[in-house]
Amino acid sequence: MFRGANKVTLDAKGRMVMPTRYRDRLADRSQGRLVVTIDRDQCLLLYPLPDWEEIERKLMRLPTLNPQARRLQRLMVGHATELELDGHGRVLLPPQLREFGALTRDAMLIGQGNRFELWDEVRWNERRDAWLQEEDLSSGLSGDLESLSL
Known about the structure:
Blueprint: E1 2-9, E2 15-17, H1 20-30, E3 33-38, E4 44-48, H2 49-60, H3 67-77, E5 81-84, E6 90-92, H4 95-100, E7 106-113, E8 116-120, H5 121-133, H6 143-146
């Protein structure tokens, strides 16, 4: 499980150092191999390769005659790129994906269980603050979420 918010820096070549606390889990889970793709919220999603392969199989089983399913396949699978941690624990993010996420130097890596979200730090702070200020966080929650007690 990946959890927590981590401030990370991208170097001039677009490399990001994976925080040390995740490296062993990534090595065990995927031999340091990851997949990065785009998300509707204009951040990037990073998955250990085995977790991505499971999601990719589910995506590709969606009915291709459904326009929403095709869009999701095009966006997520079409932008999926394999990455590998180098000897220094870095991954090189492709320029077109950095551009999509508006990633320059300062970024936030947010653990989300089986994956990470990678956000431009300013965009992350703006979105997080907006989410926290929403008047009623419970409006529109499904039955499963309404019964969740934190």
